[in-house]
Amino acid sequence: MLAADFAQLGKEARNVQEAGADLLHIDIMDGHFVPNLTMGPDMVKALAAACTLMQDVHLMVTDPQNYVDPFIKAGAGSLTFHVEAPGAAAGKALDLVHRIHDLGATVGIAINPETPAEALERLLPEIDLVNVMTVHPGFTGQAFMPEMLGKVKYLRHVLGPHQRLEIDGGVGIRTSHEALEAGADVLVAGAAVFRGSERAGTIQLLRGDYPK
Ligand code: ZN
């Protein structure tokens, strides 16, 4: 949603639902973990009233533990926090995973480009999704980092069949296909969908469905 028209977010959400999107990906930035500021739980609540898509909330924040309750209460279906977040440092991350599950949402862990996949090892059996950042987090519109595909392949190999593997950042038609081939099964596409002209067609192409 970071690439949507902020002056009409409800309309944008309904429009991509009609165009065939499976979920809304909401990037939350606190101006500290990343230098940018975006939106908060009130936006999630408003989007939940505007459409029925599941909201996949990506917390790019220093202290994810402070945001779990407000976002789930607002209607988030999935919460993803960063393995690099100081508030989720060793010992605290697992408690956070359990708290999110207890509140009825699914849990993802996001991993920055410079962090090796091994950093996730202890958490992997407990979580529902891994978000592999394919740009440096903070701003929309950056170029996809193809060198992250090795991390995607490795994670697909170690994740179970019901665990999702998401790529986030710079996802377009060509890069989405490379990521699908590497084992990704959730594609976060911002600019490609919202700033293109034909959204339903773009979503089909991102999935790898070509019109006959
Ligand atoms: Zn994201």
Total of domains:
1
How much helix is in the residues?
Answer: 25-40%
Can you tell me the CATH topology?
Answer: TIM Barrel
Strand content: 15-25%
Compile the SSE list and pairings.
Elements: H1 9-18, E1 23-29, H2 41-50, E2 54-60, H3 68-74, E3 78-82, H4 93-102, E4 106-111, E5 129-133, H5 149-158, E6 164-168, H6 173-182, E7 186-188, H7 191-194, H8 199-207
Helix pairs in contact: 1-2, 2-3, 6-8
Bound molecules: zinc ion (ZN).
Zinc ion binds at residues 25, 27, 58, 168, 188.
Structure characterization notes:
With 212 residues, the chain is of the alpha/beta class. It has a single domain (6-206), classed as TIM Barrel (Alpha-Beta Barrel). It has eight helices and seven strands, in the order αβαβαβαββαβαβαα. A seven-stranded parallel beta sheet has the order 1-2-3-4-5-6-7. The longest helix has 10 residues, at 9-18. Bound molecules: zinc ion. Zinc ion is lined by residues 25, 27, 58, 168, 188.
Feature tags:
binds zinc ion, alpha/beta, 8 helices, TIM Barrel, 212 residues, seven-stranded parallel β-sheet
Kindly summarize this structure in a few lines.
The chain is α/β, with parallel strands linked by helices and 212 residues long. It has a single domain, classed as Aldolase class I (TIM Barrel).
